Amino acid sequence: MFAVCAAARHQVTPKTSNLLSAKQIFKYLTAYPKLGLWYPRDSPFDLEAFFDSDYVGAHGDRKSTTGGCQFLGR
Fold it and tell me: Which PANTHER family has this protein been placed in (predicted)?
């Protein structure tokens, strides 16, 4: 997940290294197509999510920085 978020930060003006990183992500996804999350119908689905965003880290271009976390069950 971290790799996908890191790659998404450079989607406006990608460099060659960013494109190679994205290519590695797609290679991984195609190599393991059956991996995923499974939520049975009868299980209690208790999802809690928190997010935050600000402009503090980007004084020059004023682009926002966003972060979040999700908790499934406790």
Answer: GAG-POL-RELATED RETROTRANSPOSON, REVERSE TRANSCRIPTASE, RNA-DEPENDENT DNA POLYMERASE-RELATED
